[in-house]
């Protein structure tokens, strides 16, 4: 996946706020207590991503610099983006420039948070850990903290303008989000910026729009959820119900579905294998309440001290994986209560992986034909306009993977052809989805590797979903040319199936 360099959040477009997050009238708290530089450390991360066009190699390394927040227990909180695909992480004290290598302990790219820890246990002995501030409200004044080049804290005042549920950078999860207004400036090491209130950590900035001078903040309640799960033996990630819905504001639509209650939203999709599907929720059910909180016609409920907010806050931020949340629904004219045991998302079961960090992409090269499994990072290699510029057949399969038949498995496709004597006449083939190899259905690269181990009459027959519908490769020639292929193209291994 292409990850921009330092100051990524400064160029991200701000995510549109979902409807229903009305500000709450409240007298703002104006007292801002100072935060010591001993509560923050510079984090220097050397990152090196894999090249999805040439999955056997990496791209050039680059450096990201940000701020880490010291937490109780000798751990440091940063955004996951700061350490994505890291090869070396170093901590640096702002005042003394003392340094220590660091290890990434837990990282969650969905919520954009990571915990790191210094290799030297004495590095943080004089640090002043920050506590979390989970009581912020719309109108509260805050401070966004950065370091000047001399190690002094640059304190930029701001104000919370909105509290809602919004999508996080990977567009794979929506969680509680604070929107703040603050006139931030580019400063060295500003990839991660803490926001504080009354001397406590309010959250970490994950997006900033310099034109409107607004930022989206990962708030303390999300951080608290992450830290609680990080203490578990196996980090479970954030929970989801796994459904989509539409508003019921249209009075004719409400009459059509027999909805006489004041609120409620209509379920349009229940994702296969999701917590909602396992609990028995179905397309056409009307959600009236979640966790005994009445849901209005837009899917919002009233959260004390915040106001109206999407009910996904109850299932994604407040609840944890394994918790059971009751859904009150209308089905066939009757009210029912359906307990939903929430679960995380198993990306291994995704048709197209939403992201791939910290690991080499899977691939298999057969006689010069390069086969890969479809993923969002592969498509994003086409740049910021990838949804239009990437191969449209693959974009479609990624976007509508939930509508594919159950058990479809991974999308295995021919990504490119390396010219060799075995691929004469096939040089222009690319981005073709594989359906069968030697008569065996292909639902993963492992299936492909197993199928080519049993050629038919000395040939491998590869079938595609598009023209040409099939091609043949001489299995003996492929085996005999492996060494030459690796030497000619500098490929260390002809497959990675891990």
Can you tag this structure with a few keywords?
single chain; 498 residues; alpha+beta; 6-stranded antiparallel β-barrel; 11 helices
Which helices and strands occur, and which strands form pairs?
Blueprint: E1 40-47, E2 62-71, E3 75-78, H1 80-83, E4 86-92, E5 99-108, E6 113-118, E7 141-147, E8 153-167, E9 174-181, E10 193-197, E11 200-209, E12 214-219, H2 220-230, E13 243-246, H3 251-256, E14 265-270, H4 275-279, E15 286-290, E16 293-294, E17 300-303, E18 307-310, H5 312-318, E19 324-331, E20 334-341, E21 363-366, E22 369-373, H6 376-380, H7 386-389, H8 392-399, E23 412-417, E24 432-437, E25 440-441, H9 445-452, E26 459-464, E27 470-474, H10 475-480, H11 482-489, E28 495-496
Antiparallel strand pairs: 1-2, 1-4, 2-3, 3-6, 4-5, 5-6, 7-8, 7-10, 8-9, 9-12, 10-11, 11-12, 13-14, 14-15, 15-16, 15-19, 17-18, 19-20, 21-22, 21-28, 22-23, 23-24, 24-25, 24-26, 26-27
What does this structure look like?
By secondary structure, the chain is α+β, with helices and mostly antiparallel strands. The protein is flat, with a radius of gyration of 25 Å. It is 14% helix and 35% strand.
Radius of gyration: 25 Å
- Poorly predicted residue ranges: 1-33
* Arithmetic mean of pLDDT: 90
Mind describing the biggest β-sheet? 8 strands, antiparallel
Taken from the alpha-carbon principal axes, the silhouette is flat
Helical coverage, percent range: 10-25%
Count of runs of 4 or more consecutive helical residues = 11
Terminus-to-terminus distance: 18 Å
The structural class is alpha+beta
Roughly what fraction of the amino acids lie in strands? 25-35%
Number of separate strands? 28
